[in-house]
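Dock FE2/S2 (inorganic) cluster; give full complex structure.
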Amino acid sequence: MSLPAERVTITVRKNGSLLVTGDVTILDHTGNVIPRINDKPNVALCRCGQSQRKPYCDGAHKTSGFVDPVDPPEAPPVP
Ligand code: FES
């Protein structure tokens, strides 16, 4: 019996990165592994476009003024 694969979770951080939690490998467009920039078990991916270490977040969102758009209203319940 095989163990179930670890579930990966992606959390959109308010005014920040995408936090990827779980056993993931980040590949470039040719399929090569992009080495991580630290030994943390989670991976933070840049979504502000200002990181000097893309695709990883280097904290530049904090000084670049990156802010999320206003949160959308909650979707109505499905009938
Ligand atoms: S989200 Fe952190 S540097 Fe872009």
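Observed: The mean pLDDT is 90.
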